[in-house]
Amino acid sequence: MRQIPETHDGRSTAGAVSANGLHRLMPLILALLSLTGLGMSVWQLEMARAGVEIVRKDLPDGPVTYYLPQQTADGPLVVVAHGFAGSRQMMEALSLTLAKSGLRVAAFDFIGHGRNLAPLSPRVTELDGTTQQLVEQTSAITGGIRNDLGHEGAVALLGHSMATDIIVRAAQDMPDVASIVAISMYSDAVTDSFPARLLVVSGEWEPRLREIAVEKLRLLDPSAEEGSTVRQNGLERRVVFAPLVEHVGVLYSPTSLLEVRNWILGEPAGTGSGKNTLTRTGPWILLGLACVTALFFPISKWALPRREVERKPVTRRLFVQAALLPLPLAVTAALFVPVPIAGLAGFGQITAFFLVWGCIQLFLLRRHLPKVTGQDLAAALLLAAWGLGGFAFIMDTYAAAFVPSGVRVIVMCVLALGTLPFMVAERVLVQNAPVWRRITVRLIVLVALGSAMSFGAGQFGVAFTVLPVLLLFWLVYGTMGHFAAGRGAVFGTGIGLGVCLAWAIAASTPMFSAA
């Protein structure tokens, strides 16, 4: 009987060859799966827009996107407002659902958000400061939308998070407001006599906001419970929660979409008559973003030949020094170098923090810095091109504003002075490091930056959304960077990630005027 040859570890030669062949095919398999998933995602997201005319305009009080149905139903014009650090794109599932139900919808960008390049007032803790500025914008832009569309009838106001308080206050002095929809609501302007028609939707995983919603419902009926509708003295109020979602997921929940649709159209709550109009874009957005990220692995493997680089291991002592020594100086620089960028608050401090942190780490790791080669240039260009031209494009088109424009481009260029050394140093420090080291390094940065923002509340604290952006950046761009650095291009990967981080912060952070 013929004996099958074995390898030195006891495996058959045929099995080893088969495993090796499968390993070589993995990039191709992943590329095909990712392209298929990406294609399905884009197809579904574009089909969700079918039958709705989408028109983007710049009105005097801000940029607006109109969602106009082919056949108009008998109902109000709906004005849609996003939450803090959001944009029109984040509200599109709701906007499309309402438009497919025959309603004309107009979603706008608040001052300092998305494509609205005017800065917010820095007086965030005063009602006559930032809040009043946004209330006035909401009233003005609603009037502008009415005039632009020639609409003389009633309007409905829909807002998420921060916008819930804004739209309730704006409605107090606005004529013909048929109803208000507040998603993830917090507002002291809701009383036992106003608004006349109010729907409040919260995510199941927003316990405090759900409590607030029930409190507002019980202003009309002390015995009312979540999930009920109260009608009293000409007022109508309903409070519900969307299951298994949080502060962002509530915008895409089918429960939210159906409740909002039925409320604005005046149809009975809980009926399924409008289910065919629900636009469930959330899962397809996540699939598209995941596939764009995964697709970078085979692209980097094919575009960047693997280069073996000899690197001295970072000792535990050096790791601790590099992780902790930058903390006090970076926090101090952020607090005491309050230089605004283009007249905007927060960005100067963020730049100072990253610059000092990165430079100190680079000095400590100077004996471990890799030699720069053409491979690094290729990696930097590839990572920046895919991260900004691929991932950012899908994000900006279907999920949230993620492309800097106007003054945000200036902000990005200045931020890069800090993010470039920061990301190069981080990449050197975590390359080939165990997972616990990578997590530890990043947690220290988040804690340090968060502490600096809390100590410097006001001019620096207004940029607190940088913290979740940084966390998501490491999750997405950090994964792509890991693929590129694995090809032997550690320095170039750091450069590419530094550019992408400056882009992400500049594109997504609300802009406040420096005091």
TrEMBL record:
GO terms for molecular function: aminopeptidase activity. It holds the Pfam family Abhydrolase_1. The chain crosses the membrane at residues 21-43, 284-304, 316-337, 343-365, 377-395, 401-423, 435-454, 460-477, 489-512. Keywords: Aminopeptidase, Hydrolase, Membrane, Protease, Transmembrane, Transmembrane helix. Gene3D superfamilies: alpha/beta hydrolase (3.40.50.1820). InterPro entries: AB_hydrolase_1, AB_hydrolase_fold. Residues 76-185 form the AB hydrolase-1 domain. It comes from the Bacteria. This is Serine aminopeptidase S33 family. It comes from Roseibium hamelinense.
